[in-house]
Amino acid sequence: MGTCRYPAEFRADAVALARSSGRPIAQVAMELGVNHETLRTWVRKAEEGERPGVAAETAKDAGLARLRKEVAELKLEREILRKAVACFAKETGW
């Protein structure tokens, strides 16, 4: 099955029609000859794009996840070094 790329103007018009018509998305999609899940995705993305904080929150969450992972790695490295120091101290008689 191939994918079909719709022009941005068509997608915008389809989203506007789906929002303003009051009809179910599946019905609007059928009338336009578009898969209903495709139209639903367009509407969802348009709604997410209208909320200004969504992109910032997503970037912030990704940054927090990256920092948490880095902290976990650093803690593990610190623990390994702590054990190595204890091992070397035993060998050298410190």
Automatic annotation (TrEMBL):
Organism domain of life: Bacteria
InterPro entries named in the record: Homeodomain-like_sf, RD_transcriptional_regulator, Transposase_8
Any GO MF annotation of the entry: transposase activity
SUPFAM superfamilies named in the record: Homeodomain-like
Pfam hit, one: HTH_Tnp_1
Biological process terms in GO annotation: DNA transposition
Protein name: Transposase
Organism name: Thermomonospora echinospora
